[in-house]
Amino acid sequence: MVTIETTGKHLAIPSRQKPCANPSRPIPRIDAAKHRVLVQGLVRKPLELSVAQLRHDFPQHEVVCALQCAGNRRHTMRTKLKEVSGIDWGDGAVMNCRWKGPRLRDVLNEAALHVPEPPKAHVSFACHAMPCEDDTWYGGSIPLQRGMREDAEVILALEMNGETLPVRHGYPVRVIAPGIAGARCVKWLDEITVQMEESPNFYQQHDYKILPPEATDMEVAERYWSRVPAVQDMPVNSVVAMPGSGEQIRLGHDGTVEIRGYALPQGDQGPVCRVEVSTDDGATWSDAAIVEGNEGHGKWCWALWSATVELERGSPRRVLSRATDAGGNTQAADPQWNLRGVNYNGYGEASDLTII
Questions:
Q1: Nearest to 329 by CA among 262, 276, 261, 273
Q2: How large is the average pLDDT for residues 43-72?
Q3: Of the candidates 138, 108, 101, 106, which has an alpha carbon nearest to the alpha carbon of residue 123?
Q4: CA neighbours within 13 Å on the CB side: how many for 62?
Q5: Which residues are registered as beta bridge partners of 121?
Q6: Distance between CA atoms of 217 and 330, rounded to whole angstroms?
Q7: pLDDT in tens, 300-332
Q8: CA dist 137 to 28, 51, 253, Å?
Q9: Fewer CB atoms near the end CB (10 Å): N or C, the chain?
């Protein structure tokens, strides 16, 4: 789990501290010298690219972005709304890194796209290295137009934070699609397919979807999987990381307490431009200071924030946070419940605080 205690004020956090984004995967051991990425489907020139070709035959692009599991904050949905199905992720299923590799659009342009209706097309990513819990391979897809936009900065990452991509994060190559759920950022990538439909993989078709409230259990959910779109963009969000819920906090000499956390923009609507905090259950709000995240590379990355607030001694006390991004998206107090507990973005919260 990633915490503000471990990140401090750093934009990119050490590799060893990050959670894995893809679901229920064993870690394959891949010989990079022999590894190939196939590029196929609706292209005139199918490719079979080595890692060396990806590194040397295409311009290398660096992007700083947050990558988060669609189930980030699932625990809060479970405890504040009602029971959900899925791993009990807290507020730390997120990482913020410098990624480097060729742009997806450059690779697809080299393959010479031949797509009858580009607005309806998809680009599918796959890893066949090992079977998954619910499928014999892992895959995901994004709209082709998103993948081909230069300003979307989708890359095939070979490096993370200036070093070779770690094995647990997809070595030798993984997809990085900024602003999009981590489940689509396939690790240990071995196949790219341009096609007119989404990936047929289980995790695209039967998971990571915001099911309607009527889907109250997995049996009922079967009626809805084919009718509900797959999660792509992640929502605007913020988290109160320090203090944590249930902690005892000593009041400063001036009667204040420091609050710290992180905030994330919605999809491609970044950067985060405002974070507010409340100590009276949302009746009034005051601005927090964004201490890092917006200077020069903030469209996709988290914003670390801090605020100094006045609190009375006693318990229980509660602090809320809400973020707003450049697209005007602001967190809501009570997002709608969904069975898989994905894309939860209710107010950030530290509750049951004891102030001494």
A1: 273
A2: 97
A3: 108
A4: 10
A5: none
A6: 30
A7: 999 999 999 999 999 999 999 999 999 999 999
A8: 12, 21, 58
A9: C
Residues 81 and 99: their CA atoms lie apart, in Å, by 35
Q: Which one has a higher pLDDT value, 7 or 246?
A: 246
Question: Left, alpha or beta for 44 (phi > 0: left; psi -120 to 50: alpha)?
Answer: alpha
Whole-angstrom Cα Rg for the chain: 21
Instruction: Retrieve residue 100's tokens.
Output: 């480097």
Alpha carbon distance 40, 195 (integer Å):
9
- Look at residue 12 in the predicted model and tell me its pLDDT: 52
Q: State the pairing for strand pair 191-195/36-41.
A: parallel
Six token digits for residue 200 = 């047929």
Q: Half-sphere exposure of 221 toward its Cβ, with a 13 Å CA cutoff?
A: 16
| pTM of the predicted structure, to 2 decimals | 0.93
Tokens of 235: 């929502």
Alpha helix stretches (DSSP H) within the chain: 4-7, 51-56, 74-80, 104-111, 144-148, 202-205, 218-221
Q: Are 150 and 103 in contact (CB under 8 A)?
A: yes
Which amino acid, 296?
A: G
CA distance 304 to 150: 27
pLDDT tens digits, 206-250: 999 999 999 999 999 999 999 999 999 999 999 999 999 999 999
Q: How far apart are the first and last CA of the chain?
A: 28
How far is Cα 316 from Cα 263, in angstroms, rounded to an integer? Answer: 25
Using a 10 angstrom Cβ sphere, with 0-12 exposed, 13-18 middle and 19 or more buried, the burial of residue 56 is exposed
CA distance 2 to 281: 26
Q: What tokens appear for 234 in the block?
A: 């992640």
User: Is 322 in a helix, a strand, or coil?
Assistant: strand
The helix (H) or strand (E) run that includes residue 175 is strand 174-176
Query: Hunting for tokens 């990806």 — which residue is that?
Result: 54
